[in-house]
Amino acid sequence: MTPEAIASTAGVILSLVLSYFPVVKNWYNPLPNEQKVTATGVLLVLVTAGTLLYKCQGQFACLTTDWPLALSTLVAALVANQSAYLIAVKPLKK
Fold first, then answer.
1. What value does the mean pLDDT take over residues 43-63?
2. Exposure check for the chain: N or C terminus, fewer CB within 10 A?
3. How far apart are CA 73 and CA 8, in angstroms?
4. Residue 74 pLDDT more than 70?
5. Cα–Cα separations (whole angstroms), residue 38 to 22, 76, 87, 91
6. pLDDT in tens, 54-67
């Protein structure tokens, strides 16, 4: 799988876990919107970093030179995360 595909899958899973997994949901839902955005953003950056570490097999030089891949991977994770929220979470919220 490509890094973008892995990060997209992780973005969808992250959205669903934050919305439906009871332990995480009880921590995440009471947060103010600004903190929710920050927490989700930090988690998606960590997903991107982990995906790139996997792709580069831990080689630091690969991580520092492949910024276009890092950016496209982060964008893929963000798009997938927000799409999953809009499709599977927002319509069910009351």
1. 84
2. C
3. 8
4. yes
5. 20, 18, 21, 22
6. 888 877 777 677 78
Distance CA 48, CA 42 (A): 10
Alpha-carbon distance 81 to 39, whole Å? 13
**CA dist., res. 13 & res. 31, Å (int):** 20
What is the structure's pLDDT at 15? 93
Cβ atoms of residues 52 and 69 within 8 Å:
yes
Long-range CB contact pairs, 66-75, < 8 A, 24+: 69/3, 72/4, 73/3, 73/4, 73/7, 73/48, 74/7, 74/44, 74/45, 74/48
pLDDT at 94: 61
